[in-house]
Design goal:
The protein is mainly alpha-helical. The protein has two domains: 37 residues; 49 residues, no CATH class. The chain is 59% helix and 0% strand.
């Protein structure tokens, strides 16, 4: 019975010591944060362009839905969010075309 009491005492002593050390480390982190201060993050890259329109033309929406109907698995639900193209980048447009081409390339015949 005496060994169990020593074990429980050691357990609680260890837990209290760890808790106190963690509180001390939190205080050190807050002190360092106050000393260093907040620095604004430097934004790398170009600013985001505002969208030209809020809606896609009906022809484009129909084309996108037709492609998605072929790419997505049949008889399963999928959430698709379509955002209008922004005035800005040929790179973004090329990435979108590459993504659609890749999705169509992996599509098996008969889907």
């Amino acid at each position: 019975m005496n060994k169990i009491a020593v074990g429980v005492e050691l357990l609680f002593t260890g837990m209290v010591i760890v808790f106190l050390i963690l509180l001390f480390l939190m205080g050190v982190m807050k002190a360092i944060s106050r000393l260093v201060g907040e620095r604004p993050a430097v934004e790398g890259g170009r600013p985001m362009a505002q969208p030209l329109t809020t809606e896609l033309p009906p022809e484009e929406l129909a084309a996108v839905m037709a492609v998605l109907g072929k790419v997505l698995p049949p008889n399963q639900q999928a959430v698709v969010r379509i955002s209008p193209q922004t005035a800005g980048g040929g790179e973004e447009e090329a990435m979108a075309v590459a993504a659609i081409a890749g999705a169509l390339a992996v599509m098996r015949p008969g889907h």
